[in-house]
Amino acid sequence: MSHEREKSQSWDWDSPQCRAQLDEVFFRQHDYIQTGRTEHKEFWTFFERFQRFKAKKEMSGSKSSRQESDEGKARKKSGSVDLGLPKDYDARYRINISVCSKDIEERLGGSEHRRRRESSGPGRQEITDCRLALLHFLDFNQKQSFNKLSKLRREQKSLPIFQYRDRIVELVRTHPVVVVAGDTGCGKSTQVPQYLLASGFDNIACTQPRRIACISLAKRVSFESLNLYGSKVGYQIRFETSRTTATKLLFMTEGLLLRQIQQDASLGQYQVLIVDEVHERHLHCDFLLGVLRSLLPLRTDLRLVLMSATINIKLFSSYFSDAPVLQVPGRLFPIQVIYQPIPSEEQVSRSEKLDPRPYLRVLQGIDQRYPPEERGDLLLFLSGVAEISTIQEACQAYATHTQRWIVLPLHSTLSLAQQDKVFDISPPGVRKCIISTNIAETSVTIDGVRFVVDSGKVKEMSFDPKAKMQRLQEFWISRASSEQRKGRAGRTGPGVCYRLYAESDYDAFASYPVPEIHRVALDSLILQMMSMGLGDPRTFTFIDPPPASSIQTAVTYLREQGALDEHGELSSIGRLLAQLPVDVVIGKMLVLGSVFKLVEPVLTVAAALSVQSPFLRSAQHNPDCSTARQPLNSNQGDPFTLMNTFNAWVQVKAERGSASRKWCRRRGLEEQRLYEMVNLRRQFKELLRTHGLLEDHAASRAVPQDRARRRERLTERQKLHQLKRDHELQENTKRKVLRLEEGLEGDASSASDGEGASSGKKRKDASEQTVDIQEVKFKLRHNVNELQEAACASADLSSRQQSLLKLVLCRGLYPQLAMPDEHNATRKDSEQVFHTRNKQGVVIHPTSVFAIDPEVLHVPEHESSEFGADKGQSNRHQLLAFVTLLETNKPYVSNCARIPALQALLLVANSVDTNVDCSRLVVDGWLELGLTDGAGAMKVLSSALTLRGEWERQLQAQLGQGGPGSSAGLGLSGPKVSRRELEKLCEGLVRFLLYTEVSYSLRRLAGLQSQNLYIGPQKDPDLSSASSLGSLFPGMKPEPDAIKGGLRVCSYFTYNCLRDSKDLYSECLRSFWSCPHCDLYMPLTPLERMQHEVSCRPPEEQQPEEEAEPESVNTSSSSSSGLTRVYHCDICDKDLTLTSTEILKHKRQHLS
Amino acid sequence: MDLSEGSALGVFTCELCELSSPYSFYGQKPPNTRAIVLLEECYGMRDPFCPEREKFLVLGSKCSLCCKTVCVGTDCSLFYTKRFCLPCVRDHLHQFPEQVQNEVQRKKSVQKTSSS
Ligand SMILES: [Zn+2]
Ligand SMILES: [Zn+2]
Prior knowledge:
The complex is a heterodimer. Chain A is of the alpha/beta class. Chain A has 43 helices and 32 strands. Chain A folds into 7 domains: 111 residues, no CATH class; 170 residues, P-loop containing nucleotide triphosphate hydrolases (Rossmann fold); 180 residues, P-loop containing nucleotide triphosphate hydrolases (Rossmann fold), CATH 3.40.50.300; 53 residues, Arc Repressor Mutant, subunit A (Orthogonal Bundle); 214 residues, no CATH class; 244 residues, no CATH class; 85 residues, no CATH class. Chain A has a 7-stranded parallel sheet, sandwiched between helices. In chain A, strands 14, 15, 17, 18, 19, 20 and 21 form a 7-stranded mixed sheet that branches. A 7-stranded mixed sheet of chain A has the order 25-24-23-22-28-27-26. In chain A, 39% of the residues are buried. Chain B is an alpha+beta fold. Chains A and B meet through α4, β1 and α7 of A and β2, β4, β6, β8 and β9 of B. The site of one zinc ion (ZN) has 8 residues of chain B, from β7. Chain B: It comes from Phoxinus phoxinus (Eurasian minnow). Chain B: InterPro entries: CDPF1, CDPF1_dom. Chain B: This is Cysteine-rich DPF motif domain-containing protein 1.
């Protein structure tokens, strides 16, 4: 005994060596808890607490316990059963776990061993102490986990929907379609999928309108179904999936499910489909319902569950042949509604700023009526960003004065970090005042809101088919939205909703918001329908059919884009576009770019144009940001600026990793958008690869990595995975507490990291120290070196490649073109005006490079003559190709690139009409080009037609090969298009774009002019000229144009149909001309000249068939009789029946 | 990651509070826990709240007196060398040491005040 005590004195629990010795006993490699793990650290912390607790207890002593238990013993005698419980209480008896360590005890018991350890090792007492602590530790952990489980189950039970669990499962078992209607807080989104999963349904897909909801629901439901660390519950969104073979419940976006239907029309992989939030009536959702409705008869085993708020339920039920409806009451606390219509003197006209007084009155009212100790935040709904900043400013002034509010804006164009602040907690006695767009109506849910202020207004995007323009307009909300907004006040307790309109206004609101399908452009939808073989979109049974006119507009647009052919069928490029989950214009760019081997730059541009702009608006008026951004700007246009930005960012990432965060901040860039770009870019690349439009690089440059390098990369990846896991675990940690001055710094210093408020700086530093999870994900997903290579490649594009890229952009974006107003050169920079075909007087969005530098769009003064016939003539006219035209307070075009007008139009326009000598061209019926140099005009036109023909041929050849479904990586070197041919085409196009030396005037046709443009159909068409044109375009049959008049040479070119046109063969049009390739020198009409140019090629280009063709005129019998005419040859003195070409050839015989 | 998935033996349901959860082992030896032994036959599962794979969580067991299946929650049962459901504890309260008696009595009064 004395020996033992001696040792305990030398034993020091705090010494790392001593602890290490016990680690050897209890926490070995294969033990339940292992040295080095988090739990091991937690144990020793627990141990210290435990020892302290024990010591305290020993001090106070347990005097009475013995006595009490004696008493107990006495009473026990009267009882019936003897439980045989120990008389002396010991906490140890409360633990149902033991740690068996016989092996160690034996080891320590051995005398030899003992001697060896005697001086320093742990004795029996230490081991017992440690074991006891370990038992308590294990028990403590068990209790913690069990409490989590029981709390979770309690919460599940308390949800209103819980009462309906069996009923829901029963309904789904017995009906193909079930509608579950329940209001916010009833728990349908998280519980219904679980009920079905628990009752044995497998392979459940649940769609959501928003990506973010897919992720958060998957996380929540996997937690609730006790599978947080497994993959039974997963999500799949555009760039990310957590799906594995074990996944039984999958949350996904509506769009993604539609894509899957495109691949597998019967959706065989799912047994149950849950379509959530159907009442929101998003375009994709409405369409999805239509598709599923027609799928149900084919899949009688499929179960469909529609989940909706309690809005318009009958509509959904009757759409699915009166499907049963289960209505679940929501869990809302009572909300007091106060109508406070804005007095007329405070109402504003459209152009004015919002008057903040009605809003301030609400804040004051709250301050007067409710003591600050009573918590509860305020959520204020306004229609748009401008309105938010007006009210924010006023509220902030009030907040600074009272020190009782933190004012925070919330809208989708804010940086994510700023958006995130609304979830932070305000300090005691201070309320948050969140000023939001309708984003907080459904998308973002903020707890702790007690007061809602509803302006009753919303800005909604609608499509104006006449102007071909998106429009963001302010409307009154619907009663359904109004109720939704009100409901936000009663999520966590009773609330108050202030409506800044009259009750009579409310009664006059529409019942429901206008479904998206009635508001937006339907191009993508129609394209997808066509490719799914759903038949005529006009007869498809939508839940609420869109107006026929808007379907027609979409069909026309798709035809203009080349996605549909003349008969309204999918073209080969259209088929491909339908597979790409992007806008038609972006898809076109991708396809065209890969044909020209511009894959890397075009991927970047397409990705950049598909995400929100990374340029933060708040940084726009910050001179530091502008200066830092300067080197990234390209005066070629915004797509090029975006590409430069992306490339520069990739360089920073490759060289300095997470320092890119700071780099972005300095330039006023939202890094999140760049991460989105890099992800999207990768997805596009995959798409091109699966569609055979990408040469497989992996094979061609399989640089064998040495083992060490591979190993290094592997270890790095493991480390990154660990970081990601750790981050995910931390994610649920507590929210930050806001500081009173939080609202103040919002706009001013968020984008710069200049001098700013020092408090702001502190916050940034703190965020910098935490793991940059985006950086981790980025490194896991992308090979930085590969990206860097790609960025380098597209960073120094030759001017040749740049022109090609521009052409690709232009053909992709066509017909989205705008023309500078002729008086722009004399206007201020801020007053530059442009015109599109359908909308006059549009302006460039202030974020565009052309808003900063509009001069590059002007025709240089010295180059355009201002007087006489040459007025406005120049070879430097330019147009803007733009991505979006959106009207907010003004119609803005954004994401613009400048393009050479004549050249680009001739290469991409759908309709080119000329007069007889081609000195006057009208493109798409609205742009008129006047070329005074007849010969030059002819040459330009002729080479454009040739280039276009060849371009089309090569494009078709390649699309034909690598069409959808082709898995073989048929790249660009396929047999149909040789490398040489492609290079020649590129060369030709570039030369045409860059070096066309022809002066012309460019103007917009006024309304009346464009109405009286064409000759119209002629009664007695000159068929001979038709045949003569035929030789210009082998394989095409020029025909008199039934509408415009003149001759329709090919789908986009109609010759001599303009009203000023003269007689085709009028002698006065003849002028002497010498052919550069043969000896021909004679007076020819423009048409004859073109014909000759086509048939007379330099020797190396001549095709064998042509040479084989018999030269003799008399033997020619191939031409159809209708196209010949009688020709009297003076030299032969004979009447010959010949086509125009043959006449020409005949003439040539005499010359040689 | 998914080793434990789909390996549920059945569903454990507490006869007192109806808490239920799938269980993946029954007995005194949670799988892969080496030196750890349970002092009663337990229903248990992989600890769903712990990222590490081999951690277990005991859900409940049978009352040593009435054989009812009860969860380990303090409202349903307690362990004092053996598992006792709370009704049984109350029936034999005098046989338990003072600490346990106090604990159970305190629980009763808390329940009373919260339910009223
Ligand atoms: Zn229980
Ligand atoms: Zn019992």
